[in-house]
Design a protein that fits this description.
alpha/beta; 6-stranded parallel beta sheet; 29% helix; 28% strand
Length: 334
Amino acid sequence: MSEKFKALVVNQEGDNFTREIQSIDKNFLKHGDVLVKVHYSSLNYKDALILKNGARLVKEFPHIPGVDLSGEVVESSNSNFKEGDEIIATGMRIGETFYGGYSQYAKIKGEFIVKKPKSISTRQTMVLGTAGFTAVQCAFTTKQTREVLLLGEKVNDVIVTGASGGVGSIAVMVLSKLGCNVTAVTSKDDNIEYLKSIGAKNIIKTNDLNVEARPLDKGLYDGAVDTVGGNVLAKVLSHIKHSGIVAACGNASGIKLNTTVMPFIIRGVKLWGIDSVAASLKRREFIWKEAAKLVDFEKLEESIKEISLEELLKVYPDMLGGKTSGRYIINLSK
């Protein structure tokens, strides 16, 4: 490996928060037992918050952000990995407590790493990243958990909120591939045709659901993936049929949930929280293998923008301001 390589380093001294591309060596990397040449990382909303001011998630400075990364092992003192292994690392407080993927080389704990399935490339894993990993978890929870684990009836009609976002759009695609009739909820008119192209059968505007919900409304859906929370989630719960599962993973519409026990005790609805950060290694391995089968990467490429670390510094403020669309991946070779 090169003696020096570039990394995006954030630092804070007093009230002064900085972010800059620096030339560092591997002695700068203080965490982990597996040294990885990073091929790709990605930009998530959490990354943008950390780049802005640390978001109270980063406890020690200087710090290298980037909650997702994929690449190739170049050195390892962990018996589970050897030079040449291609890997994926997401969640597990990478990019928060531990140095992350915005660096040409990263040192990661072996227990945080998944070997990349052969059927998917390192670039494709970051086209998905945490957003895609979360979406596949949500889709499997909504459909497969009910049908297989709970031996329930077939899941046909599902609703996905925040469908224009990274998690929501991939959930639409995966649930459609699993045979569901998907209703996509979005606030963006210019995304309607795209959502239909990836499998949405029906489109609902977010404002139609962002209202105070009745304790129980007409049962319309066998399950749901909710990425926004708040009133939208409460309204969705009121429309879930008996024994349906709602996989909840976001709070863009608010952290408070104004609902009643009625959907749960009258219809047996289950509200299932999805946390992609601390998912078990076995679950991670399963989800990545299934993602390779269920995601249409050619279609996703229409919404992917590949950028460099330098360009990342210009893009993240736009994400925080709601001015971006699609997904950004960072090519560490640029």
